[in-house]
Each structure stands twice: as structure tokens, then as C-alpha cells.
Amino acid sequence: TIQVNFSRKKDPIPNILDISTKNSVTFLGVVLDNKLTWTEHVDNLCKRISTGIYALRRIKWVSDLEAAKTTYHALVESHLRYGIAVWGGSSANNNNRLLLLQKKAIR
Fold first, then answer.
1. Separation in Å, CA 10 to CA 5, 24, 30, 38, 104
2. Cβ-proximal residues to 25 (8 Å cutoff; 6+ apart), any chain
3. What is the pLDDT averaged over residues 92-106?
């Protein structure tokens, strides 16, 4: 059992029970941090998308455009779309990082 206190206050919420407290937790593939900034989730997303971009570049050299499109949808766009209703309201900085990677993948 893990406890995450979601709050923007600087004062920590006391731990009444003897439960370990963490700053973030992964729930259904979405990383929730205690201040709901989504930075840690976007960091993980950037790593996954970068891996997809690498595979996409390799496939573009050995296959046709249709295979590259399929690879883009499978390895990049699917990660961007998953859980966007939850983390889509992230900061402009986080959204710009993802937009740059998406543009890189499309090229």
C-alpha cells in the first residue's frame, strides 16, 4: 500500500497510519505526482516516443511510406493519445516538449 498526498501546499500532510508515502505513483500507465504537474509522466512519455522515433527512422530506410505511417501510429501516436484526457492540461513547457518530438517523428 502506498500513500500519495495530492496537494500544492508546502506543509506536508501527516502520515496517520504506518503507510509508506511517495511523491508519485503509476496508475494504469499514467504517472501521478503529488503536485499534479505531470512532468514525470511527460518525461516517461518522451523516453517512449524517442524510442519510437528511432524505430521509425530505421523503418523509413528499409520500407515504404505506408509501413512508416503504421509504425508512427503504433509507436508514437498511441503513446501521445493514451490518457490525454487526464494529463492533457499539463503546462505549456511539457506540451511543447511533446510537440517537438511529434514533429521530429513526422519528418
1. 11, 16, 24, 18, 38
2. 2, 4, 31, 32
3. 91
Higher pLDDT, 19 or 51: 51
Hey, which bits of 1-107 come out as E strands? Answer: 2-3, 20-21, 24-27, 30-33
Q: How many helices (H) and strands (E) does the chain have?
A: 5, 4
Q: Give this prediction's pTM.
A: 0.81
Domain residue limits, the chain:
2-106
Residue for cell digits 509522466? 41
CB–CB of 46/25 below 8 Å?
A: no
Per the structure block, which three cell numbers stand in for 80?
Answer: 501521445
Q: How far apart are CA 42 and CA 78, in angstroms?
A: 14
